[in-house]
Specification:
Layout lengths: L9 E7 L16 E2 L2 E2 H10 L4 E8 L17 E5 L4 H15 L5 E4 L9 H11 L6 E6 L4 E4 L5 E5 L5 E10 H13 L7 H7 L5 E4 L10 H15 L1
Parallel strand pairs: 1-4, 1-6, 4-5, 7-11
Antiparallel strand pairs: 2-3, 6-10, 7-10, 8-9
Helix pairs in contact: 2-4, 4-5
């Protein structure tokens, strides 16, 4: 397969319509305070000063009471679209907007709203490696822990070999037209995709794995917030 051309603008899509029920907080996790700012503000800051990024599209829940009060300090254009019930629907809504703003050959970085600790060197490495690829790719880290398969009773059924297994992270980077088409197909055919790479896999494609840092954690549970603050403050220091 021939390498993709390196032309095309670079856009960021952040699905931020989730409720984050596992945090057991009074608000969605993207609006929790972290080192003096909300989680979402830290996440936006990961892209705000990147010279290649043309703009950011946020997918926000229609009844979100916190978004209107958030004051963003971001020089880039920030567009807002309605979020869907599932992640894929939110991302597709954002891609529909970008289809009117950009070109099918533009690149899109899809990033979790609750991953505020993306390192600039990881972002630069992802962009540099993926824009040479015909399919696209994602940040990921190799699995280091022993992996167990559970049975229906919650007992260990077997140990799974971890060779070749990776934890999928974000950003995930694909061409606008390609990703939009793959997501549309998956949704129309009732296929549940948990990340953008899954939509391309369903279409028979094989995205590139780009190794990133393990501290690019997703805030899901209360203890993750403390860990994310530790990583952020250590980096700032």
């Amino acid at each position: 397969m021939n390498p993709a051309r390196t032309d095309g603008d670079l856009w960021v899509v952040i699905p931020a319509a989730g409720l984050g029920t596992r945090m057991a907080a009074d608000r969605p996790k993207q609006y929790l305070m972290l080192a003096g700012r909300t989680v979402l503000e830290h996440t936006l800051a990961c892209f705000a000063e990147h010279p290649r990024v043309r703009g950011i599209v946020l997918a926000i829940a229609l009844d979100d009471p916190f978004w209107p009060d958030l004051v963003l300090d971001v020089a880039l254009p920030v567009h807002v679209v309605p979020g869907g019930e599932e992640r894929a629907e939110s991302v597709l809504n954002a891609l529909d907007l970008l289809a009117a703003l950009g070109q099918p050959s533009d690149w899109v970085l899809v990033h979790d709203a609750a991953r505020p600790n993306l390192a600039r060197e990881d972002l630069d490495r992802l962009v540099a490696e993926v824009e040479q690829d015909a399919v696209g790719g994602i940040l990921a880290v190799p699995v280091r822990d022993t992996m167990k398969r559970a049975d229906e009773e919650g007992r260990i059924a077997r140990t799974e070999p971890r060779d070749g297994l990776w934890h999928a992270l974000t950003p995930q980077m694909f061409r606008l037209g390609l990703l939009r088409g793959c997501l549309q197909r998956a949704l129309e055919e009732g296929v549940r995709v948990t990340d953008e790479a899954s939509a391309l896999e369903y279409a028979g494609l094989h995205p590139l794995l780009v190794e990133g840092r393990a501290d690019n954690i997703k805030i899901t549970r209360p203890e993750d917030l403390e860990l994310a603050e530790f990583f952020l403050t250590r980096r700032q220091a």
